[in-house]
Amino acid sequence: MKRKIVVALGGNALGKTPKEQLELVKNTAKPIVDLIESGNEVIIAHGNGPQVGMINLAMENASKMEGSTTPEMPFPECGAMSQGYIGYHLQNAIREELLNRGLNIPVATVITQVIVDKDDPAFDNPTKPIGAFYTEEEAKKLAEEKGYIMKEDAGRGFRRVVPSPIPVDVAEKEVVKTLVDNGHVVITVGGGGIPVVKEGNSLIGVPAVIDKDFASEKIAEILDADYLIILTAVEKVAINFGKENEEWLDKLTVKQAEKYIEEGHFAPGSMLPKVQAAIKFAKSKEGRKALITSLEKANEGIEGKTGTLIINE
Ligand SMILES: Nc1ncnc2c1ncn2[C@@H]1O[C@H](COP(=O)(O)OP(=O)(O)O)[C@@H](O)[C@H]1O
Ligand SMILES: NC(=O)OP(=O)(O)O
Fold first, then answer.
1. Locate the Aspartate/glutamate/uridylate kinase domain: which residues (predicted)?
2. Is the CB of 292 under 6 A from ligand 1?
């Protein structure tokens, strides 16, 4: 059965350095091409937290070196750079994997802007972790030296946080639709999209990082997708995650998922946005389904053999 699937790729699909990313995307391309080979229309979105943080820090450090001629790079431009850098590696890996299987399907990355509300309260409360992980001591030093806001990230260390507004619309949605309708494989809303606000006919970049799970949900609704698949490092969603009574879930109804959110089962900044995006998509139209699973299990997941399926029943 031909399905339209938006696939959201997590950090484990990309790695932390250009060399690592170039290697990792070869593996990432395989399950994506499996889905295409099975006859599905696939649209790809991905995160950029580590990458946008790395680019921004590097540009800032370079601009502050004595005698530097490197300009300061505004944050939205760093987001655009991260889309290009990740899209470049991903589209080549997918293209090559398709060709290796005798499939001559065009692949393209669309530099995508996502419209946000300039009055979104998220601008006053930075929550989105970006860049590398630091110890508490290193984090304090960075906060003092650079004025960064540093927060603990789901038990994994300290990271810089930036505002993360909710996606309202996708500026390039007609371009993406046209490419998808013509059978092209499209990489879009990379890093949640470059956040922009509308001012008359202008789109103005704002310093923020949109959550890619929410941006993927938005483009999935816009494209009238059947499935939103969020690929991360775990095969299933758990309740009591990491505890003795941990329980991995095959299926979640929207009602159950909302109850588990209230009970605090999903860590903010990691599993919580995925479950929230899955709920929103499942609720958006009858028959729409969301699946959270690991990269390696994507194809088995879509066949109903694994992963956590989120449905509205
Ligand atoms: N309830 C939960 N069930 C499963 N994983 C959870 C849960 N709460 C937190 N996690 C953690 O969240 C991680 C996914 O979040 P994250 O690494 O931020 O995602 P991404 O793949 O988008 O980079 C999982 O690998 C797991 O370690
Ligand atoms: N933009 C975004 O959500 O990135 P990560 O998935 O890397 O956090």
1. 4-293
2. no
Tokens representing 38 are: 């099975």
Query: Global pTM?
Result: 0.96
Can you tell me the distance from the alpha carbon of 87 to that of 109, in angstroms, rounded to the nearest whole number?
Answer: 6
Please tell us whether the domain made up of 3-116+167-311 is placed in CATH 3.40.1160.10: yes
The complex's ipTM works out to: 0.98
Give the Cβ contact number of residue 36 at 10 Å.
21
Cα of 239 from ligand 1 centre, angstroms: 12
Give first-to-last CA distance, the chain, whole Å: 22
For the chain, which residues make up each domain, given as ranges?
Answer: 3-116+167-311, 127-162
Residue 12 near ligand 1, beta carbon < 6 Å: yes
C-alpha 155 – ligand 2 centre gap (Å): 17
